[in-house]
Amino acid sequence: MSALKTWFDGRSLREKRLLLVMAALMVVTILWAGIVRPVDDGLASARERHSAAVVRLGETQARVEALTAIRRPPPLTGSLADTVRAAADEAGFALQSLNEDGPGRVRAQIQSARAAALIPWLNRLERGGILVEQATLTDNGDRTVGVTLVLRSRAA
Predict the structure, then answer these.
(1) Are 153 and 104 in contact (CB under 8 A)?
(2) Domain of life of the organism in this record (predicted)?
(3) Which of 15, 43, 110, 139 would be a feasible disulfide site paired with 11, CB 3.0-4.6 Å?
């Protein structure tokens, strides 16, 4: 260290000032390149990850709300048999028979139905809280099917 002091003392006043300015600029450059820039880059990266996480959270919450709405259909307004009868009439299916098969269960028979119309109707029933417990479809030979269904209320 004494050799450095001797060397520094051997410089002229102008050289000493230039060396001090150079040392100060070097310290500022090292601080900038070694501390400020990495911290700033880290903060920018954290902001990007945070905004992406906020977007993912919003999407996830929207999915959860949609699934909750699907899982909790509105309660049936009348008896299960009345609801099934009304839904069949609305879809244009003539029920051959509709019998209570226990609490919250009915057995329905449709003599003739087109499969392309039957499947969406069954999906609407399930979205409305009526589950298809059993379905038997028999080909009528005229592009229609005979259907025997056992339906139950989701709450039952």
Answers:
(1) yes
(2) Bacteria
(3) 15
